[in-house]
Amino acid sequence: MNMGKYEQVPHPFIIEPPDDSGRVFNTSERLCFNLILVGKAINYLPYFILAFIELGTIGLGRGRGKYRLINVKDGDKTVYDIDDRQINPGLPKELIISEIFNFENVSEEDIKLRFITHARILDNRDFVVKLDFHILVKTLMRRLHMLYYFHCNEKESLWKHNEIIDKAKEVKIAENTSKWHDWERYSSRQGIRMKMGGLKDTITYRGKIEPFLSIITAGEVLHIGKGTSFGLGKYVIIE
User: Fold this and answer.
1) Considering 33, 96, 181, 189, which has the largest number of Cβ atoms within 10 A of its Cβ?
2) CA gap 163, 137 in Å, rounded
3) According to CATH, where is 3.30.70.1900 located in the chain?
4) Which CATH architecture group holds 109-237?
């Protein structure tokens, strides 16, 4: 694989913040978040849990707010509980992503996406403020390809990238309320505030969507753009 066109290998984990991020949590309140591990990183779940436990004693954020890790769940299964302190990982789930794109006998339809956290998507080294469908597809394919190659099977995908992207250009924006939202976060490691703006809100595409659905639904889980490791680029399909 030619790494010359990629700046770095993507992290095989995503930390999704709570939906009410930005609020102040008082003593005794619970803060819930999601952790998504990809490929070989699943084997390191116990280390992630121990890291979160240790982080609670050190303190989180600028004010070094301390916490206790009460439990970890995988669906209904308890993976870790503070009372017995045993780690019982669940079975990993599979994302089925098609490597075959069939554009014959496909009818046009709409798909509506809502970007929940800031989507910082680069195209030709510039941040995207209008997310055309082919840029969405190209960015998702690059991310999924790299996660698969570096953290799963070390195999190249069978996608015919140029052909797929050309077909994606035929899908148009039908409605767009997405816009750039400025946002800052504080970096405890660097001791500075960092500008991390990106796209939020909704965008509707119209065209032959069906062949692209497997990578779009995978993107719901794995996010898109820069800063995915701490939850940026999260979207959901709402229609």
Assistant:
1) 181
2) 12
3) 109-237
4) 2-Layer Sandwich (3.30)
